Amino acid sequence: MADDHPRGEKRTELADDRTSLASDRTMLASERTLAAWWRTVIASLAAAIALVKIYEEVEPAWAVRAAATVPVALALVILFVAARRYTRTAKRIESECVERVPRAELWVGTALLFLLCLAAGWAVWTLR
């Protein structure tokens, strides 16, 4: 029965293990959230290009392109908010021994999506 209710050191180890697992879960949740934000960025860019293609016959063309620029701008805002929030969460958990997406990979992914935003913005204004 003593094994069912650990005392002293065993109880402290159990609490440390549970805290460590909670930190791992928090970091994994943050990574899933980052991935969801990145998917939202890609969906916004797809929506922008779809707007231009669906309404390519509508005049004036600049109005369609201006409307399609809104999702591109939204994607840029979402991209940087996502990176900022993930970085803040990672810093708060940094004191724990928790694996996270390395900073280099985070910023490479963010930079690639930023370039994709620029390409989509360019496509919105040059597609015909």
TrEMBL record:
Q: Which residues form the DUF202 domain?
A: 25-91
Question: In the UniProt record, does the keyword Iron occur?
Answer: no
- Topology relative to the membrane, per the entry? Multi-pass membrane protein
Return the protein name: DUF202 domain-containing protein
Q: Where is the major localization of this protein?
A: membrane
| Cellular component terms per the entry's GO annotation | endomembrane system
Per the UniProt record, which residue ranges are transmembrane? 36-55, 61-83, 104-125
The organism of origin for this protein: Sphingomonas lenta
Query: What keywords are annotated for this sequence in UniProt?
Result: Membrane, Transmembrane, Transmembrane helix
Q: Where in the cell is it found?
A: Endomembrane system
Pfam entry (one): DUF202
Q: Record's InterPro entries? A: DUF202
